[in-house]
Design goal:
CATH architecture of the largest domain: Up-down Bundle
Distance between the termini: 26 Å
Low-confidence stretches: none
Helix content: 40-55%
Strand order of the largest sheet: 1-2-9-6-5-3-4
Number of strands: 11
CATH topology of the largest domain: Dehydroquinate synthase-like, alpha domain
Mean pLDDT: 94
Largest sheet: 7 strands, mixed
Strand content: 15-25%
Order of helices and strands: EEHEHHEHEHEHEEEHHHHHHHEEH
Number of helices: 14
Structural class: alpha/beta
Length: 364
């Protein structure tokens, strides 16, 4: 399988030649200085591996930030901008973002705004970043507990996807990225959903092929609608409530913080239930999807107050228009509806369905 996509905006490589293609691309780019942005985790577990794979011999500057979604803020950006300035970065410098979704989102925003824009490269090291966060040109930071409220759309020059970095991740992080792959299957095809049932991180070849399938699904959608004026909104399936749940848990000290994929898995169940009520998604398929997700993602409990607070956060969703909360819903695998209004009472019923569902599926 030829795993490369080259457009006028960016080049995505995930084949055996990806690192040599990156090196030749950097020679053409000829940056005055190269900076590598990492968080503390990727610096510890991925930096030496990156240097070995990339074969970068010239001196590079490292910029290290604290790990975690809580640090995806404008204040972290200010620290990075200051560091870049102090270390002599100019408009011909290059920023390489080595890490998961927080690093690629934040790093892309930093690069897009420093001196009105410098070139950047994404090297995703988490499954979530490989199939979602590092692709499509969305860069940004959170505003308090609200996800991705400030940002720009700007593409990296290169994205290098090498599953070798997955060996550095705990299982929880793998499962978090798996949620986005399952979302891709729901909005694309039932065949891909079936393929994903056999996902095994230790099966390197199959894992690589499944990752590339997700990359192609997202890239095809983004290519049609780079600025998210219509079609691209389907990539937000499960994210309207998923992001609100993630934000609520991030800000609520009485609850455990959820990884992005853990929150999105809940959002997928809720959105699929709502879809069965509003656009006719098959209830048998709803049951199977719910069972599979609850097998692989720990069920969470939500009080009436929790649900009301989560619903209140929906007013900040970026798909909203004139104060109306708009959902992406599914009629069937690959058949999406965008800009659908959903009542608060139906959202509450969806939470009730999620919490009362009895699961018998075998775990991944």
């Amino acid at each position: 399988m030829e795993k490369q996509i080259v457009t006028q905006h960016t080049a995505i490589y995930s084949n055996e030649n990806s690192w040599s293609l990156l090196k030749s691309g950097l020679v053409k780019l000829n940056p005055t200085k190269v900076f590598i942005l990492m968080d503390t985790n990727t610096h510890e577990h991925c930096y030496e591996l990156f240097l070995e794979c990339a074969g970068i011999k010239n001196s590079v500057e490292t910029v290290i930030i604290p790990s975690g979604e809580i640090n995806k803020t404008i204040y972290t950006c200010m620290d990075i901008w200051t560091t870049l300035s102090e270390k002599g970065a100019d408009r011909s410098s290059l920023l390489i973002n080595l890490g998961g979704g927080v690093v690629t989102d934040l790093g892309g925003f930093v690069a897009s705004t420093f001196k009105r824009g410098i070139a950047f490269v994404n090297i995703p090291t988490s499954l979530l970043a490989m199939v979602d966060a590092s692709l499509g040109g969305k860069n940004g930071v959170d505003l308090g507990m609200l996800k991705n409220q400030v940002g720009v759309v700007n593409n990296p020059r290169f994205v290098i996807v090498d599953p070798v970095f997955l060996n550095t991740l705990p299982k929880q992080e793998i499962i978090s990225g798996y949620a986005e792959m399952l979302k891709h299957a729901l909005i694309d095809s039932e065949d891909y959903w079936k393929d994903l049932q056999d996902f095994d991180i230790f099966d390197v070849k199959n894992t690589s092929n499944l990752i590339w399938k997700s990359i192609k699904i997202k890239n095809n959608i983004v290519t049609q609608d780079p600025k998210e004026l219509g079609t691209r909104k389907v990539l937000n399936f499960g994210h309207t409530l998923g992001h609100a749940i993630e934000s609520y848990c991030l800000d609520n000290t009485s609850r455990a913080t959820l990884l992005h994929g853990e929150a999105i898995a809940i959002g997928i169940v809720l959105a699929t239930y709502i879809s069965s009520n509003l656009v006719g998604f098959d209830k048998n398929k709803l049951g199977y999807i719910t069972a599979f997700l609850l097998t692989n993602f720990k069920k969470q409990t939500f009080s009436k107050q929790d649900i009301e607070s989560i619903i209140a956060l929906l007013k900040h969703d970026k798909k909203n228009k004139a104060g109306t909360v708009l959902f992406v819903l599914l009629e069937d695998f690959g058949k999406t509806h965008i800009n659908k209004e959903v009542s608060n009472s139906l959202i509450q019923k969806a939470f009730n369905y999620y919490m009362k569902f009895k699961n018998t599926t075998q775990k991944l």
